[in-house]
Amino acid sequence: MIVLFLVILLIVLAGLAVLWVARLPGSVLITLGPETAIELKLVVAVLAVLLIGGALALVWGALTGLIRMPSKFSRAREASKTRSANKALADGLLAAEAGDVRSARKYASKAAKHGEDERLKLLLEARTAEISDDWSGAERAWGQLARLPGGHLAGLRGAATAASERGDTISAEARAREALELRADADWPFNALFDSQVARGHWQEALDTLAIGEKRGAIKGDSLRRRRAVLYTALACGLPNAERRDAQRLLADAIRSAPTFPPAAWHGARHLMIDGKVKAAQGVLELGWKANPHPALSQLCRRLDQADTPKTQLARLEALAAANPEARESRILKAEIAMSSRDWMTAIRSLALLVEENPTARLCLLLEQALRGYGDDKESNRWGRMAATASREAEWSDIDPNGSAFDYSRRDWARLVYAFGDAGTLVHPRYEAYGRELEAGRHIALPAPARRVSPLAQPSGRSAPIAAEAGNPSPLASPPLDYVSDQEED
């Protein structure tokens, strides 16, 4: 459009020039030889010059067009190939995302012939290999992409994923670690490396990666502190008894990171108890109870010192309940303390309020025990029957009948890293598996060298709170502390 406008403008200007020249007087004399001369009017001469100039321009344009024609054909052919390659790449990537392996391979082959950008060809090749479950081929393509400018981070991510899919976690971690060293803004290198280390149970390496993630800003706040607490506790629980001092240091770090993590408080207090540091163990239990009461902490509090008298044991439990008096577990503990003092009416009132909130099997059995101590056998039997169909308590399942608590496997610890680390909730493997758990009212491992029964275990001389099954020993029997310690250490 612009060219046409210019041509019309030139014609108009030329016409105006001719009209202006036609008004001028004079002529142009052209001498061709000694006796030959041609005289032309000025306007004719101007028109002749314009016509000759136009003819020369046309001839010159034709000649240059002929000279440039081969290069134009070459550029047109390359442009056609580029369009074809781009279309093949786009169609191939769409086919790969759609899961059409056959079409993706066809377009990948076409793009490999005509494509100019090696990165796009490798990307299509890698994606095609992935949807074909050819993880070795995918890892090879991603690895080549990682060596090209601009494709390093994407190539490392794809290679790490491919290596993980084919079961080579070492290569996957190496790729993620290499990407983490690039100091890019992407979060996947930290997440991929951390997740792999946690899944393998490499707690110390996961802690190191967590520290890097903290420096890079990939994780912060409560999630950071809670994840660190779980990792410290898992690492401490995996250490042998010979390294108990290191375990205590790790557990102290875990408690400082997240006092609301009951396993850290329980294991920390247990290590101090084994070393004879009863006062320190009591302090750890009260700290954990204040942050997040858990029945396992009160169970351990009952057996901190083998030399405890019933009065001393009650004083410990009262101090524990006072650390968080309004919590549900503290109210249950106060009811148990009341039963130990044979204050049945106080215990019944407390338990009745708790049962109204959530009638679990544990509370039904405790209320049965309190009513039986009070002397109301009919009502006691009714609550005992209700316990058979009432819901169980997840936290109560964390306590093993043999005396240990939070006896988690590597998989359970790995789940806790995310369940507690990110959401602040515990996992309860025994509850999920419906495994055997401690019966309500049975206080395990009471320190009784002469098999002395704690007042908390049997508050009434009239009858045991929970009758022993025929042929089985009473669940109120208390194994000695040495036996319990051995069981826990195992």
What does the secondary structure layout of this molecule look like, with pairings?
Blueprint: H1 2-22, E1 27-31, E2 37-41, H2 42-98, H3 101-114, H4 118-131, H5 135-146, H6 152-165, H7 169-180, H8 188-200, H9 203-216, H10 221-237, H11 244-257, H12 262-274, H13 278-291, H14 295-301, H15 310-322, H16 328-340, H17 344-357, H18 361-374, H19 377-387, H20 410-423, H21 429-432, H22 481-489
Antiparallel strand pairs: 1-2
Helix pairs in contact: 1-2, 2-3, 2-4, 3-4, 4-5, 5-6, 6-7, 7-8, 8-9, 9-10, 10-11, 10-20, 11-12, 12-13, 13-14, 13-15, 15-16, 16-17, 17-18, 18-19
Summary of the model, kept short:
The protein has about 500 residues and is mostly helical. It has three domains: about 45 residues, no CATH class; about 80 residues; about 270 residues, Serine Threonine Protein Phosphatase 5, Tetratricopeptide repeat.
Model description:
The chain folds into three domains: about 85-130, no CATH class; about 135-220; about 220-490, Alpha Horseshoe (Serine Threonine Protein Phosphatase 5, Tetratricopeptide repeat), CATH 1.25.40. The termini are far apart. It has 22 helices and two strands. The protein has about 500 residues and is mainly α. Helix 2 packs antiparallel against helix 3, helix 13 runs parallel beside helix 15 and helix 17 packs antiparallel against helix 18. About 65% of the residues lie in helices and about 0% in strands. The chain has a two-stranded antiparallel sheet.
